[in-house]
Each structure stands twice: as structure tokens, then as C-alpha cells.
Amino acid sequence: MRGFASLNPRVLALYFLSVLLITMFMWNPAIQIISLLGSLLLLSTLTSAKEMLSDICFYAVLILLIIAVNLMFSHNGETPMFFLNGNPITFEALLYGAEAGVMIVSVIAWCKCLSRIITTDKFQYIFGGVAPEVMLILSMALRFIPLFKRQYKRVSNAQKAMGIYSQESRADKLKGGVWTLSALTSWSLENSVETGNAMKARGYGLKPRSHYAIFKFGINDFIIALIVIAFTVVVLISSSLGKLDFYFYPNISGFDLSYLSITAYISFGVLTLMPYFIETKEDIKWKFYISRI
Amino acid sequence: MKKDILIIFSAILVVAALIMGMDFQSVDEYYLTHIDDIKPDSQTVFLSIDCKTILENYDKLDDNLKFEKYVPKDGIILKKTEYVLRKGDTVFDILSRAVRHNKIQMEYKGANETAYKSAYIEGINYLYELSCGEGSGWSFLVNGKMTEYGCSQVKLKDGDVVEWKYTCNFGEDLKQADDKEMK
Predict the structure, then answer these.
(1) Which residues of chain B are at the A interface, by a Cβ-Cβ cutoff of 8 Å?
(2) In terms of residue numbers, what domain contains B111?
(3) Average pLDDT along chain A
(4) Are A9 and A215 in contact (CB under 8 A)?
(5) pLDDT-wise least confident of A109-123, B17-31, B50-64, B128-142
(6) Per-residue pLDDT for A1 more than 70?
(7) Number of independent structural domains in chain B
(8) Residue A181 in 3-state DSSP?
(9) β-pairing, B44-50 with B161-167?
(10) Does B61 fall in a domain?
(11) Average pLDDT along chain B
(12) Which residue of B2, B4, B127 is the best one to mutate when testing the A interface, meaning the one whose CB has the most A CBs within 10 A?
């Protein structure tokens, strides 16, 4: 644990909350693109290059899909490109779809970063005092995803070893996948019963119960929290004054280029790029120390 | 491998069927509509489109539509014009022909997409349903009266007057205007 991830979990939660909310609710292409850039850069420090590449391919396909869906259902806009079944397919709808796609992709990428950085023990620390039961259930539910993945691989390997669904054909693979999934469902039911028994056996639910945490709130955490709050407030003020408004329909409105809106874009840019800079700084430091050995 | 080829082939078939069912038109093709010339013996109807109620509720209108090209100063998008009535023409047919001829933007949901088995006009001249408050949308009057049917269910006859009006209050504001005219 180093760099950005070593900050106090509460500060990290504040950071992700503010970035996610701004990304989701500010309907402005500049904000979305900055957000996408920041999330992808941070993700690149957290995952391998191969995984990153496959993620980016998935994101590109998702954006194209959202554009296509928006073109089919939204016909508003001043510049029709052609007409489909008597309704126009417009350039504005294309851009609107791209904007929505970028927004969804950047939210997905931020959430992926969040799950990598705020691990379940940190979640327990953040919400453990307020709602320990809910948090325990949530973290157990989230744990099920990697567990499920691992078991899926095991079952399908076993099936392959027995010689079923082992052909190269895609149709056969699909059929095998469905069967594996059905086996997996019964396994997960059994597993949850076992977990419940194990918890009971270890005395879960007995009264005198406490929890401990190893996280401290240092001066670094304080500074970062202040920065996050200050920049978020700048963006919120700017948007509440209508400086970040952007319209796609009926025709595309331009960006507002007053000092306040530019300040808002810059502060949001700093906010989203901050973790990446902290990470790279740590990286450079590490390499520097290694070079001196 | 055989199965793979079969699946790819059937996927291509489905996509081809989807594309065959679509009707592609270029922008010029769409606006190129033939309006019959009015002859002494031809049956005609009158059509007008206006959004006068928006002028009274201008503060409720979406900010991106507060321009004169979307809401004209007098509220009239298409002034009362005479069109030739073809046999079996409905209110929707006349509107669709008129907006194409005058190059006015219009978006609709086809009769098979709605629950009422009638076409629904979502927006004319970039003014959409819900653009001006919660009860706003397009409505039509035939000979000054509202009908209980959808626009592609009402068949027209010679001399009918069709008015497409934008309402900001579920059509109530259009009825009031009628009453005033009656008095």
C-alpha cells in the first residue's frame, strides 16, 4: 500500500464520492472528457497493460453501442444526416450519445479504481461504526464476485478434463458455459449455507463485540481532504450559476468561456488528475531509491 | 466449426432482415414531397400550426428553446394554408405532408409503436412534449373542436379546418381559447 491508496479511507471515500457525483450530474462534455482521462490514467497505474487494453476495447464498444441506441430513439436536432422510417437521424443525437457513453464509461472506470483502492477492510472502517451489519453483508456479497469467477474456472476445467464441451466450436463453448453456470448456482447456494454455519460456530452475533482499525488521520490526509472540498465547491458554485450548462438539442450550444467556468474546468482537471500525479510521484521516488542502492 | 458457420450465417440473416425492414432516405429525398395543385373540383382542407400558449408561459419554457427561430414572436409556425385532400387522408397524413413541404422539423411515434393504435406527434419545430412545463405537448382541433381520437384515426372531409396547437396545460388552455371565441 503506497501513494494514493495509503491515504485515510474516509478521505478516499470523499474523493471518489465527489468525482463520481460531478461526473454523473454535470451534463457537460468538457467535464466528462476530463473525468474519463483522469479515470483511465489512474486505472493504468492500478492494472496491467494487457488488462488495460482489453478494458479500453470494451469501453470503446460500449460507447459505440450507446451512440447507436441514442440514434435509434432520439430524433431531435437541427442537422439531420439521413432519414430512417420517416424520422431524422441527427448529428446532435450522435454527439449526445457519445457524451452519454463517455459519462457511463468514465463512471465504470472510476468504480473500478474505487474497488481496487478502497478494499473491503477500508469499507469496514468507513461504515463499520454506522452500519456494521449492512457493511458486512455488502462486503461478503462483493467478495462473491471473485469467488464466483474462481469457481467457474474450476468447474469448466473439470468439465474439459472429463471431455465434455471441449470442442473448439463457439456454439459448444456457449452451451458449456450455460451448464457451468447452472452448476455454479447450486454451488453458491451450498457455499452460503456453509458460510452461515461457520459464522455461527465462531460466535457471530454474540453481544460484546468490538472492531479495530489501523488507519490514522494524518496531516497529509487533512491537506488532500481540504483540496478535494475546495475544488468540488468551485465546480458546484460554477454549475449553480449556470456556467457549466451545455445543451445538445435542438442545436449544440457552445461552451461558456467566462473566468469562473474555466476555473471550474481547471479545478476539476486537477481533482481528477491528482491521484495519478501522486502515484507517479511515488513511482519516480521508488525508482530513484532503487537506483541509489 | 460447422455450428459456428451456421450461427454466423443466421446472425447475418437476422441483421439483413432488420436492414431490409428499414426505410433509408437522404435529407433531400425526405423533403421532396409532392403537393397536389388545387383545382376547382379538388377537395381541400385547411391546416395551421401554432404555439401561442408558450408565449403566455414563457418562463416555463426550457432555456435552450428560448430563441425566436423555435418560438416565433406571434407564435405561428405555419399560418392557415389550404391543402388538397387525398382520398382517405387523416389528420396525420395532412400534417406530415405539410411539414415536409415547408421543411418544418417534426418527430412522431408510428401507430404501431403506441398503445392507442394511432400516431403520436412528439415534437414540431423542435418544441417537444414536456418542453414547456409538465402538461405541455402537441394537440389538434378539427373545426375548432378537440376529438377523442388520435391524429391518424381521424379522417378528414372536404372543407375541414385542422389546427395543431401547443398546449401547456393538458389541453385546458386550448379549450378556454375556444370559449372566448364563441362568446
Answers:
(1) 1-4, 6-7, 22-27, 29-30, 63-65, 70, 96, 105, 107-108, 110, 123, 126, 128
(2) 25-182
(3) 89
(4) yes
(5) B17-31
(6) no
(7) 1
(8) helix
(9) parallel
(10) yes
(11) 87
(12) B4
pLDDT of B174 strictly over 60: yes
Query: Do residues A82 and A40 lie in contact, with contact meaning Cβ atoms separated by under 8 Å?
Result: no
B119 Cα to chain A: minimum distance (Å): 12
Round the CA-based radius of gyration of chain B to a whole number and report it: 20
Cell of A173: 463453448
Q: What is the mean pLDDT of residues A62-80?
A: 92
In contact, B33 and B83? CB cutoff 8 Å:
no
Question: Which bin fits A47, alpha (ψ -120 to 50), beta or left (φ > 0)?
Answer: beta
Which residues, numbered 250 to 289 in chain A, qualify as contacts with chain B under a Cβ-Cβ cut-off of 8 Å? Answer: 250, 253
Which phi and psi (to 5°) does residue B149 adopt? -120, 165
Residue B82 lies in a domain: yes
Whole-prediction pTM: 0.82
Give residue B50's pLDDT: 92
A250 preceded by a cis bond (ω within 30 of 0): yes
pLDDT tens per residue, range A230-287: 999 999 999 999 888 888 888 888 888 889 999 999 999 999 999 999 999 988 988 8
Query: Grid coordinates representing A70?
Result: 441514442
pLDDT at position B177 is 57
**Could you tell me which residues come within 8 angstroms of residue B26 by beta carbon, excluding any fewer than 6 positions away?**
A82, A83
Instruction: Determine the Cα–Cα distance for residues A22 and A227; give it in Å rounded to an integer.
Output: 15
Q: Is the pLDDT of residue A172 over 80?
A: no
This model of the complex carries an ipTM of 0.80
- Joined grid coordinates for residue A183: 452448476
Strand order in the sheet with B24-25: A87-90, A80-84, B24-25
Length of chain A, in residues: 293
| Residue B92 lies inside a defined structural domain of this protein | yes
B39: in domain: yes
Q: Distance between CA A42 and CA A278 in Å, rounded?
A: 10
Q: Write the DSSP symbol of residue A163.
A: T
> From CA A167, how far away is CA B98, in angstroms rounded?
61
* Residue B142 belongs to domain with CATH number: 2.170.130.30
pLDDT value at position A166?
Answer: 64
Backbone torsions φ then ψ of A287, nearest 5 degrees: -65, -40
Name the pLDDT band for B20 (thresholds 50, 70, 90): confident
Residue A4 is classified by DSSP as: G
Q: What are the sequence ranges of the domains in chain A? A: 3-125+216-292, 143-201
Share of chain B above pLDDT 90, in %: 34
